[in-house]
């Protein structure tokens, strides 16, 4: 009886060791990198005042990037089902954060990630999660870095665990397809803000190389003004973006000036309450298309509006 119980416990331990994250069926494995007997510097806290708490973990390091083919996804949509799968598989979530709460630019570039085009990280919208558990053969560690473009979501998995002769697959794609919360490509600006929290002000035009907004009426600004008047307690950020021509510093400055021009137009012409508005600039750090083609560069030169309220 004792031997039988021991055997059952060993089987249970080996079953617990095997975890496979289930991605939606519209996800594709972009790349996988496996490093035997290596180490990984795992973030355990936010970037703050020039420092970020980390833990160096050792073992077989496996990194995968999955691309989920669906427009207007949110990073919460990407991470939430994976987080629940990890919890159900006895992982303890030790750290989780989103974008600015992580430490923004500094945090993102302090985390080991695989390069584009396989992994794409929107510097203005990402989530990070770190987890650990004690498996049958020792400790295991797993991190997720999730981000998105307008056309797809991206998730990088980094798993560090014991050396195994026949390791279980890290992830597969058998779940139902993942779609956006409901904003269709032709949805109104108000619907996009309510459903996915953001929208591109696609009809705006600026003088070339300038932050001066053209002297014209813009339907997107009229729609945004109506939205903010209908919800006077809501706040939004206007975020300017550029293509990759020129230096980062110059592009961040230009993109923020353009966002500020839009803010001033909303206040002066459309009577929007200034307290509902903020203006920021990302430069070329959050492209939605390739900068290798003119069409892509044109798409990247844009101003977006993002809902910043956390309550109705």
Automatic annotation (TrEMBL):
Transmembrane segments: none annotated. It comes from Yoonia maricola. The keyword Transport does not apply. PROSITE patterns: OMPA_2. It is found in: Cell outer membrane. Keywords: Cell outer membrane, Membrane, Signal. One of its GO terms (cellular component) is cell outer membrane. Residues 193-311 form the OmpA-like domain. This is OOP family OmpA-OmpF porin. Residues 1-18 form the signal peptide. InterPro entries: Bact_OuterMem_StrucFunc (IPR050330), OMP_bac (IPR006664), OmpA-like (IPR006665), OmpA-like_sf (IPR036737). It holds the Pfam family OmpA. The lineage of its organism: Bacteria, Pseudomonadati, Pseudomonadota, Alphaproteobacteria, Rhodobacterales. SUPFAM superfamilies: OmpA-like (SSF103088).
